[in-house]
Known about the structure:
Elements: H1 5-22, E1 26-33, E2 36-44, E3 55-56, H2 61-74, H3 84-87, H4 99-103, H5 126-131, H6 150-164, H7 168-177, E4 197-199, E5 206-208, H8 218-221, E6 224-225, H9 227-238, H10 247-253, E7 258-259, E8 267-269, E9 274-278, E10 281-290, E11 293-300, E12 305-311, H11 321-335, H12 352-355, E13 359-363, E14 366-372, E15 379-382, E16 389-395, E17 398-403, E18 410-415, E19 421-426, E20 429-432
Amino acid sequence: MSLRPETARQLDVLVAEAQLTGHVPSLIVGVIRDGALVHLSAAGTHPTPDADLQFRIGSITKTMTAALIMQERDAGRLALDDPLRRHLPEAEAAGPVTLRQLLGHISGLQREPDGPWWERSDGVDLRTLLAGFSAAKVAYPPHRAFHYSNLAYGLLGGALERITKTPWEQLLRERILDPLGMHRTTYAATAPFAPGYVVHPWHDTLREEPLTDTGAMAPAGQLWSTVADLARWAAFLAEPDPAVLAPQTLDEMCAPMAMVDLDSWRAGRGLGLALHREGERVYAGHGGSMPGYLAVLEVHRPSRTAVVGFANAYAFRVGGLGTLGRQLLTQVLDAEPTPPRAWSPVDTPPPADVAALTGRWWWMGIPLDLTWDPMTGDLVGAVPGDPVSRYRPEGPDRWRAVSGEEHGEVLAVLRDQTGRPVALDIATFVFTRSPDQIP
């Protein structure tokens, strides 16, 4: 499904204006809907960008490192609340800092490792990175505040290597890149690729930046990719392949661990994913930067719509490729909202014991309407003004809420002597069939 001509034209103009005002040698943005790359907007000729041209994606790499950690958690080989030192004993100086805190940038670790600027220098191996780690790198206790930490993701990559006994690059290829068909996403630049530049502010000349191998810090920002490949990752974040990562695990990654913007609450952090509020929508994704490169990934998961993009000039960060990406995504969603799914009747009614639970229940004059979802077998509970809760069967007359206001709570069915359901006990709040009945 392509964009309407007028929407596409507006995006093309915005990208062209950004390339002009930002003095970007090469700028490209792709729009993804329902798993497909549906539009490209590109500007610049150094080099002329296309969907197969590689750029460095910088810290978007972190989203994939985080997914690898969550895979290991789901497999039972680690717990998010494990202290880092359990898996990297050389990081004893981190004290009680956990994997969860490292993922969410609330560990209190400082931003960078020891040594020269790692993004512009050839990296060290894991042993050397750990040798430079000390208590001085812990700026304050966990959860005190959000503080972005590249070092945290270098250490998470090291933990993955120790747990799996597999190099991070190989693990990434086997677990994520190959299964998703991301064959143009690589550790090192693979032609064709765009050189990265610093643009002189006064006479617009270009200085090419080095193509560094960041070593043990690679899990924080090493990767190269293309618009076509990163579109596949965006589509995955919108609707994950359960063979790669469970959908409920990705939902967990998108839950905020901390607010970044304490004044307006428009930006937060999940587990490896950045969260931005634009009006009534929340976008999940990440920005990326390496010397000479910027990247953006923004996904609106409810509509399965996303924007990915690259620039090969570091100075364009003044003004923001991330801001441009969110602007373009909002433009698409405003101009072409996702049409609602058509209603269709159900061929098979629910089992009799489930049908008996549907309808209206009351607690203290407050209604609870229970319906049945034939696609999942869940009961869906709606109380006016509250988020809808979904209940999944857990045993005879026992349902567990898996989302919504009552997430995690148990719905127990209470029956009379004849076996007829007469009340629902939800976390000690008892709902009956009549608003006048006192449970």
